[in-house]
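Next up, sample data.

:::
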Amino acid sequence: MTKLSQQACEACLADAPKVTGQEKQELLSAIPDWEDVMVDGEEQLRRVFTFKNFVEAQAFTNKVADLAEAENHHPAILLEWGKATVRWWTHKIGGLHKNDFIMAARTDELY
């Protein structure tokens, strides 16, 4: 199997299927630092990244923003002193799609 971060994201329509429970467990094993959370009734992937200062955290969030724009798939990013919290989910389906796991793996590589 191709490394998760090297897999291609697919165009996601509003009727795209969410990942199944078994798929989710397999995909989560490839991104062990991420947690599966519910936010406003939608399942999401979340990870907190830590840094030495605000400038490093800001530089990281800019890299994540560039990645998101290149894939036209945008996360929630919270920038704070010494940390950045990133949440991936697919807005169109109100939950998790394989694309979210791919983008989480790519975000790990930026870190």
